[in-house]
Specification:
Number of helices: 20
Radius of gyration: 26 Å
Helix content: 40-55%
CATH architecture of the largest domain: 3-Layer(aba) Sandwich
Distance between the termini: 34 Å
Shape: globular
Oligomer: single chain
Number of strands: 14
CATH topology of the largest domain: Rossmann fold
Structural class: alpha/beta
Largest sheet: 5 strands, parallel
CATH superfamily of the largest domain: P-loop containing nucleotide triphosphate hydrolases
């Protein structure tokens, strides 16, 4: 049986009771209180082996209490709970020395598991992170999917681990990379972003590593590369899947040896940068096609982060809309708001351009419409609802809907015809069969998991596949599974 005394602080009596019962059943001794003063007194008296506290207490914010706890008893692990569920909450918890951050509501089994890990770790003093004063929120959303991103980012802030960010275009990959830099240990250094897809293939090596005077025709002076510009900071390699094979080989050598040479240079240059890469492509498919080095993939994919598309976190749309309206208001545009019907339209839209498309829409609404309140009719005028609405309310067909709804087979056939036509007289890259299956398989499994609230047993039954097969598919497709209870 586990052992240890837990000091629990939460202003909500019902939550204290539930947590007390769960932890007591797990074999722990629990002392609970509703205020920070009592918690501090217990800690000062040397009681408790672990602290679990809510952020918002009636007499003191836990973020103000945490530094005092860590100074007095640096070895005691602290688990922070919060219903605020923002990116800054997770970051502040990490900065102030919390062992773990749990956004409410959370699974009680997860809490018990976290407590067990915290009590079994070596009792060494944690290093305090340098506080960040900025209150700007780089990432917005309180969905379960975003909470997992926030927690992962909070754990990565004190490290230099290489991170691979995957996600569709417009999901905010560069924002995440910038947040890793701005709130991490390299925040005092430069953040340098380079888009591989925007650089001519023959210039990528010079762009990354620099070149010497006379290295090639037109090189009239020495040029510093992005690695040199990012020294001591973070180098963000966006659209890494578009990097040509020759540059991949040189990048792999840099990651392995920690040094590089400029184009036309002979003297190795030591480098000290953190690499964050991003792509909207499936690099494993590119590896199968011989277009991406497998050894480089494993070097870059140390910590994978998948950003969910906006259609997988529609509950974040109200927060995002308010955030973008606030930004454009600061830029001098008039204040706007959406009525309930307009917000419903946004939640049912499929958002092929993700958060970037939503931001552009909000800016357009603020700039072009004189109304203070944006209605559903205005949203319908701005969006093309026919192929993109997630669903139509039962018994209420939309005026813009097809008279004869398109079936899945017809939709796939139309999509493939458009896809092939985009290559004109040439053909798509090899491996099309597996790419198409993967594109269909991911949304299908994701929809089944969403419909069953993350219950993989029920999702496997719904899909008609073996549970182990489903688990393998979830792992291979890097799907984020969040188990929730029905409200």
């Amino acid at each position: 049986m586990p052992s240890g005394q837990i000091l629990l602080a939460d202003d909500d009596a019902a939550i204290r009771t539930v947590l007390n019962q769960a932890l007591s059943r797990a074999g722990y001794e629990v002392r609970s209180t509703s205020n920070a003063a009592t918690l501090w007194r217990w800690i000062a008296q040397g009681e408790g082996d672990i602290v679990i506290t809510d952020v918002m207490m009636p007499d003191e914010n836990a973020f103000d209490l945490l530094p005092r706890i860590k100074k007095l008893r640096p070895e005691i692990p602290i688990i922070v709970m919060s219903a605020q569920n923002t990116f800054m909450t997770a970051i502040k918890a990490s900065e102030r020395g919390a062992y773990e951050y749990l956004p409410k509501p959370f699974d009680l089994k997860e809490l018990v598991a976290v407590v067990g890990r915290a009590l079994s770790r070596p009792r060494t003093a944690a290093l305090a992170a340098t506080p960040v004063e900025s209150e700007d929120i780089p990432l917005v959303g309180r969905s379960h999917a975003m909470q997992e991103i926030y927690r992962a980012l909070a754990r990565l802030m004190a490290t230099d681990l290489t991170v691979m960010i995957t996600g569709e275009s417009g999901t905010g990959k560069e924002l995440v990379a910038k947040a890793l830099h701005d709130y991490g240990k390299r925040r005092q250094g430069p953040f340098v972003a380079v888009n591989m897809a925007a650089i001519p293939r023959e210039l990528i090596e010079s762009e990354l590593f620099g070149h010497e005077k006379g290295a090639f025709t037109g090189a009239t002076a020495r040029n510093t590369g992005r690695f040199e510009q990012a020294e001591g900071g973070t180098l963000f390699l966006d659209e890494i899947g578009d990097m040509p094979m020759e540059a991949q080989t040189r990048l792999l050598r840099v990651l392995q040896q920690g040094e590089y040479t400029t184009v036309g240079g002979r003297v190795p240059i030591k480098t000290n940068v953190r690499i964050v890469a991003a792509t909207n492509k499936d690099l494993r498919v590119l590896i199968q096609q011989g277009l991406f080095r497998e050894d480089l993939y494993f070097r870059l994919n140390v910590v994978p982060l998948r950003l969910p598309p906006l259609r997988e976190r529609v509950e974040d749309i109200p927060d995002l809309v308010r955030h973008f309206f606030s930004l454009v208001e600061k830029e001098g545009l008039p204040r706007k708001q959406l009525d309930a019907e307009a917000m419903d339209r946004l939640k049912r839209y499929r958002w092929p351009g993700n958060v970037r498309e939503l931001e552009n829409l909000v800016r357009r609404l603020a700039a072009l419409y004189p109304q203070d309140t944006i209605t559903g009719a205005i949203i319908d005028a701005e969006l093309d609802p026919q192929p993109l609405l997630l669903s139509q309310p039962a018994g209420k067909p939309a005026a813009q809907a097809h008279q004869n709804p398109e079936g899945l087979s017809e939709a796939v056939e139309r999509h493939l015809a458009e896809y092939f036509s985009g290559f004109r007289d040439s053909l798509p890259p090899p491996g099309l069969y597996h790419r198409i299956l993967r594109e269909i398989e991911g949304p299908l499994i994701g929809a089944a998991l969403a419909a069953t609230r993350g219950n993989q047993i029920r999702a496997a039954e719904l899909l008609g596949v073996n549970r182990n097969t489903l688990r393998k598919k979830v792992r291979d497709l890097e799907l984020m599974v969040v188990r929730t209870n029905r409200s």
